[in-house]
Specification:
This protein is of the alpha+beta class. 15% of the residues lie in helices and 25% in strands. It has two domains: 1-44 and 100-307, Glucose Permease (Domain IIA) (Distorted Sandwich), CATH 2.70.70; 51-95, LysM domain (Membrane-bound Lytic Murein Transglycosylase D, Chain A), CATH 3.10.350.10. The chain has helices at residues 44-48, 60-67, 71-77, 108-114, 119-125, 145-157, and strands at 11-13, 51-53, 91-93, 99-101, 139-141, 160-162, 190-193, 196-197, 203-204, 207-210, 216-218, 223-229, 237-243, 247-257, 264-265, 270-274, 284-291, 294-296.
Length: 307
């Protein structure tokens, strides 16, 4: 359910110094849980220009947005220095990325995978919004593979990718033993999106539960809070809880968080309240259950709802 940095850089927030917690997983898959929202594409003429003459009122950022070229790339290609002031009539070189022409049967996720780039980077650069409808012969600018590879390598060496500055944090304590009686439902409500593949090549790694705003969200088992914050795009106020046995649970789109990183949590303890933070418009909880790095269907591990 995951939204625009000027320099389009993904930095790393260390979540757990050890233990291998990594969420979301380090791949290029499209997910309903963190899909970005962008405006429609601009004319092809803006995509293909290799240089531009600065007009009245133009800034590096304006030109970057208009022509879909990274701010940093424009600065470096033209040897600009702070404060990056431009003069009317100045010629700027626009370093170009390769362009792909959409063919019949293509989806955005397939194009991203075949070119080894991140689907969300591809959507962002081309200003595509869900459900990522593309047309035959549409020209899509491809992001740099090097930046995508670098992002993946960072994810492999650190805990979690986000738009937050890098900082050093201590490892959380090991989680307490589980109750041995299975998981609880995190909130009372109706499942409005189930686990698994969705239309337009999207994937839901958990379930979404509709509930009234302010309803209590509880921990499904004893555990320790590994992350509490809102740095991950699209998820809003998010909690990650580690449990004994290699289990990890995620609780997204909360209105308020009642616990902080490092807190030991008891099964059934109130940890948040239902909200609509992040990429959703109505109150709901996005809940994920993972065994190590592998997402599993929560409905197969939660008790049957009482009718």
């Amino acid at each position: 359910m995951i939204r625009n940095l000027v320099l389009s850089l993904l930095l790393v927030l260390p979540l757990v110094a050890c233990g291998g917690l990594e969420w979301p997983p380090a791949d290029n898959g499209a997910r309903t849980s963190n899909r970005p929202v962008y405006s429609r594409t601009q004319p092809t003429a803006f995509i293909t220009a290799n240089a531009v003459i600065v007009g009245k009122g133009d800034t590096v950022y304006d030109i970057s947005r208009r022509h879909r070229v990274a701010v940093r790339a424009i600065i470096e290609a033209n040897n600009l220095t702070p404060p990056y002031a431009l003069s009317v009539g100045q010629r700027l070189v626009l370093p170009r990325r390769p362009v792909y022409a959409v063919r019949r049967g293509d989806t955005l996720s397939q194009i991203a995978q075949s070119h080894g780039v991140n689907m969300y980077d591809l959507a962002r650069i081309n200003k595509l919004s869900p459900p990522y409808v593309i047309q035959i012969d549409q020209q899509l600018v491809l992001p740099d593979r090097l930046s995508t590879v670098a992002t993946i390598k960072i994810r492999q060496t650190r805990s979690i990718t986000s738009a937050a500055p890098t900082k050093t944090t201590k490892a959380v304590a090991p989680p307490p033993p589980t109750s041995g009686k299975g998981f609880l439902w995190p909130v009372r409500g109706q499942v409005i999106s189930s686990f698994g593949e969705k239309s337009k090549g999207l994937q839901n790694d958990g379930i979404n539960i509709r509930a009234n705003r302010g309803e209590p969200v509880v921990s499904v088992e004893n555990g320790v809070v590994a992350y509490a914050g809102n740095e991950l795009r699209g998820f809003g106020n998010l909690l990650l809880i580690k449990h004994s046995g290699g289990w990890v649970t995620a609780y997204a789109h909360n209105e308020a968080l009642m616990v902080k990183r490092g807190d030991k949590i008891a099964k059934g303890q109130k940890i948040a309240t239902v909200g609509s933070s992040g990429s959703v418009k109505s109150p709901q909880l996005h809940f994920e259950l993972r065994q190590g790095k592998r997402a599993v269907d929560p409905l197969k591990h939660l008790p049957k709802p009482q009718v």
